[in-house]
Amino acid sequence: MTGVTLTGLRTGLRTGAGRRAAAGPLWLGAGLAALFGAMLLGISAGAASLAPAEIIRELLSHLPFLGVESALTDQQRAVLEQLRMPRVVLGALVGGLLASAGAAYQGVFRNPLADPYLLGAASGAGLGATLVIVYGGGAAPNGLPLIPVAAFAGALLGVMTAYLLGRTAGGGSTASLLLAGVAVSSFLTAAQTFVQQSRIDELQRVYTWMLGGLGYGGWDDLWLVAPYAAVAVAVLLGSGFLLDLLALGDEKAVSLGVRPALVRLVVISAASLATASAVAVSGLIGFVGIVVPHIVRRLAGPGYRRILPVSLLFGGAFLIVADIAARTLVAPAELPLGVVTAFVGAPFFVLVLRATRARAR
Question: Which residue ranges form the domains of the chain, and what is each CATH number?
Answer without folding.
Answer: 23-355 (1.10.3470.10)
